[in-house]
Design brief:
heterodimer; A: 334 residues; alpha/beta; DNA polymerase, domain 1; Rossmann fold; 9-stranded mixed sheet; two-stranded antiparallel sheet; 14 strands; globular; disordered N terminus; B: 342 residues; 2 domains; 10-stranded mixed sheet; two-stranded antiparallel ribbon; 15 helices; 12 strands
Amino acid sequence: MRDARSILLVKLNIKPGQIKKLHDAGYKFLEDLKEASPLSLSKDIGVSVQEALSIIRQIKNDKLPSASLTSIIKRETYAIPTFCNGIDKLLGGKGVTLGKIVEFCGIPGIGKTQMGIQLSINVQIPRNLFGPEGEAVYIDTEGSFIIQRVAEIANGTIARLNETVEGSPFNLETILSRIYYFRIHDYIQLNALIKNMDEFLNEHPMVKLIVIDSIAFHFRTELDLSVRTRVLQMIAQKLEDIAESFELAVVLMNQMTTKFGGNSGPDNTTLTPALGDVLSEACSDRVLLFRRDEERFAHLFKSATKPELQITSVQFQIIKDGIRDCPLPSDPGQ
Amino acid sequence: MSNINQTKSPRVPEELKVLFGEVNVGKYCKRHSVTPEEFQTIRCQVIERNKVLPKNGLDMLNELKARDSRRLSIGYANIDELLGGGLQPGDITEISGESTTGKTRLCYSALLSITCLNKENTALFIDTKNGSCANYIRTLFLESDQFADARERGMDVDSISDRIHIQKGCVYEDDLLNVIEDLNLQFQQKEINNFYLNLKLIVIDSISSVFSPLLGYNIDHYPYSRITIFIRTLRNLAKKYNITILITNSVQYARPYDHKSVFSINKKPALGQTWTYLTDTTLFLSLGDDSDQRVYINRQGCEILGVPRICEVLRSRKNLVVGRYCTFYMGYTEFFPEFAAI
């Protein structure tokens, strides 16, 4: 029977030069490295202690367990309600599920930021009211986060919660103090922030929602296309990682762009979400917000949970208190 | 024979010496207390054991036919036909396409149809994007016509749910490689867990989200070697234990192939040229005309609205017809061909 010893070092993600050094120093299998300390390793192969530490960290990875479908279904999941039943249904019944990446896209003024603000308030709804009882991180790239508006929506939310339960512990101060706001001025800052998000989340374990409004803003100018794709992929990968390991929801706001060609004919144009297919791969649900005859609609065009596909468009409205259902639902048609 | 077994480690170098005659026969005999005659028999036995036997063409053809009969259905007959009868155990099949073309959906279908075959088969779904939905897989089994026969045969949803495992948290390539290495170790345990013993299918959804952030603007060969090492490990596992591998991949945009229009875009599977050598078969899914929607009524009487999708064989190392395609409609729980729509 073979054991861990049989795993060759070549399979580790170490630079080829270092693998050769390890080989020369007599480390050939994973097992050999398990007993090494960073200090002795750095002496043996002549690298800095930091590098030696990163090599050792790699092999001490905990085993990732797989889970059967049954146990996953039994696991309790929380979701952040949007206060619009229609949109909640599109997103799988209860709203934005924790652990997933969801994208909202739409033209300017359709209510993406309003949605972001509403979600970062609703994530704080306590457990006894079926909310996740968490905190929110709001990453603002466009400067559209207006604090007066946040207070307005927060007051609307408190009023709505007070209808259902008497004397909820919610007040404006606690709501506002649980939203952590980051203002980002270029894509390097954005990348750096997301790369270091782990640290922040460890200090603030209650964070259950990260809103990025908007992901597209800094990527639409000046960047070479292949660099853009790569940076976006890196960001998407990191977001997937933190969404899973901290069990939090990530909500991305995206702008729209004009696409030439596509399925409607080679020289026709269509309005599609910006940034191409890269982001789309990472998001488990994508919702397009659009306007028709002065009414606002939400349309689901990618979904992991797949509600009945027949109802992919629902109407919603934005009032002073935030996002709400329409009082008289009308058939959006297709 | 027994003498060889008694010689403890390092056994392989000893064997090599015996085989190639590098050993001092006298010393060897003294050390292991065997006579020179016995030594000759040991040498013959070692040679016998290391000999590779030739196969003749007829045997190979029969073997191939036997393998063909073991093909596993992906869950939709028209795509099985493109694949020459289904997924081949031991092979790596890639499904690529843009988002929302139905890659993950096709994987779910394969998961269920393979676990439905009998009461033992198990499958592992490695989710690198945390996008899988356990409830949806369950709904598919309970409502789709694809599994109506299995339901009638008395296949139980709880038994199926127990036999499908989902591996989450494999966001980086180290994690992914660790999972495969761990599988390897599990197979070498003396008492193999039933789940591993009956493992028939591994799905990786998706490979591009793990590896494409590594691929740089400047051509650096290092990431490609990582992919190659990963796939080689996976392939060894698949061949050794006869496991079917299904991998999804996203697309990248290539230069326009139609020079009449600047805007026409040629799509191809992501991860570059190296990747094309690593899989056995590549299926490419693309969107059809979105306005062409059809309705299908399934056996439970539900109306299913389907959108068109095209599946094409893009590459094949086996004898599949490259360029062959089929059109189908994809709805909430169903795949259906055009003639089945109302």
